[in-house]
Amino acid sequence: MTTTHYAALGETLVQETMDNGLRVNIVPRPAFHETFAQLAVDYGSVDTHYRDITGAAASDPAGIAHFLEHKLFEKEDHDAFDLFGATGADANAFTSTNRTAYLFSTPRAVKENLATLLDFVQSPYFSAKTVAKEKGIIGQEIQMYQDDPGWLLYNGLLNQLYPGEPIAQDVTGTLASIADITPELLYRAYDTFYQPSNCTLTVVGPVDPAEILALVAENQAAKPQFAQELPQRLDDFQVAPVAPARTLHAAVVRPKWVLGVRGQTPLANDLAGTRFQIATQLLLEMLFGDSGAWFQQAYDQGLLDDSFDYDYSVQRPANYLTIGGDTSDPAGLAQAVQAVIAAGADQAQLTPERFARIKQAAIGKYAMGLNAVESVASQISAQSFSQVNWFDYGQLLQDTTLAAVQAAAARWFDPAACTTLTVLPEEAEHA
User: Fold this and answer.
1) Which three-class secondary structure state does DSSP give residue 212?
2) How many of the other CB atoms lie within 10 Å of CB of 41?
3) Are residues 337 and 330 in contact, defined by beta-carbon separation less than 8 angstroms?
């Protein structure tokens, strides 16, 4: 057991790796009443090409990671949600491009719920009947997504940034791809990726770390799983040129416009990569944040409203920026944003004064986030698969310089790496 104290934050992180490879993170919070736990798997929607446990090359249908997440709750004679509900716990799960996570929060019966979490995730049950039923459920989910203008905008942009790549596929897959999912494929993916050494368990709340570790050790010792080599992904990430701008028509009241900027190189999952992420996030806030001159001018001109947003996404093996929102003047907003991109690192808003204000606000936001048990657990869980700890993030943020932000601007703002997507009201198609 390793215990690390973060005196400046008043935090303690206890870590241990079980004999079977499962990594455990515990953050004791004696003054809190709620406990939050998350069991995460380093496996997401992009992991469709890999070597299975026999060493053979495997290729799975799009959406299988999300399908597997849904099916793990349902057992032959019960549903795991019912077990959590019986104790008053609130359980959930999600699948992203890189990660699948199962979680619960509860004010009581922490050990019982923790055992339930470990048992249902580590005891798969897939049958032809239940898989067929799930195809209908997820099929309806896919159809609902496809009618959502926000999904259309985001998914469409990813397909332009990464044409033909798994990352451009929606996490849920397509109606055609989930039709090919079988119990055998689910078991193959499960056996490959759900091995304990590819998983982390994070617990935050008023718990005794020694008691939690003892419970987990006993629970894991009773299971036939053992430590083994991490899954070997067959990354065939062949980046085609960014696709040109597109315009679509959908059932929207106001037009939507978004610009995407593709990172030209993969981002390392280490300290240097985290520093670059921080610099990029500060860059976006300095240039496009609502306290800046650019935003105020665009707002006064009617080019954007409160829906305007910007984001930096880092998802194995891709990283990209998105900037946009609802607008009555897509062409005008495009011109305004693209003028910023074209300026590269020569940005009038990248001043020492504005940098100091934006960085201080980011530090304050980070500190506030430490008060939320769920946020802390989610961040520590997510970064368990990287070389950086969430409790180190604040110091890295403090150490970030304006020069690093300017360097990020020079690295990002390449017009050749950009594409745009506009979604117009359907009536405009026939006007």
Assistant:
1) helix
2) 25
3) no
Query: Cα–Cα distance between 118 and 424 in angstroms, integer?
Result: 47
Closest CA to 391 of 409, 373, 366: 366
C-alpha torsion 15→37→388→192, nearest 10: 90
Whether the Cβ atoms of residue 5 and residue 12 lie closer than 8 Å to each other: yes
Q: pLDDT tens across 367-386, in order? A: 999 999 999 999 999 888 88
pTM over the 0.85 mark: yes
Give the three-class secondary structure for 215: helix
The one-character DSSP state at 197 is G
CATH fold label, 2-233: Cytochrome Bc1 Complex; Chain A, domain 1 (3.30.830)
Enumerate residues 6+ apart whose C-beta is below 8 A from 354: 286, 292
pLDDT tens for residues 353-367? 999 999 999 999 999
Distance CA 21, CA 151 (A): 37
Q: Give the closest residue to 264 by CA, choosing from 343, 388, 165, 162.
A: 162
Output b/e per residue, 355-366; b: 16+ Cβ within 10 A.
bebbbeebbeeb
CA angle at residue 50 from 48 to 54, to 5 degrees?
Answer: 130
φ, ψ dihedrals at 79, nearest 5°: -120, 130
pLDDT of res. 386:
82
Q: Write the CATH number of the domain with boundaries 246-429.
A: 3.30.830.10
Give the single-character DSSP code of 20. Answer: T
DSSP readout, 64-114?
A: HHHHHHHHHTB-SS-BHHHHHHHTT-EEEEEE-SS-EEEEEEESS-HHHHH
Q: Which amino acid is at 21?
A: G
Domain ranges of the chain: 2-233, 246-429
- Beta-carbon neighbour count of residue 409 at 10 Å? 22
Alpha-carbon dihedral sign for residues 177, 68, 380, 88: positive
Burial 117-153 (b: 16+ CB within 10 A, else e): bbebbbebbbeeebbeebbeebbeebeeeeeebeebb
The 3-state DSSP class for residue 162 equals: coil
Q: What residues does 71 pair with on adjacent strands?
A: none
- At residue 130, what are phi and psi to the nearest 5 degrees? -70, -35
* Strand order across the beta sheet in which 11-17 lies: 2-6, 11-17, 23-28, 199-205, 35-41, 100-106, 90-95
Residue numbers annotated as active site: 69
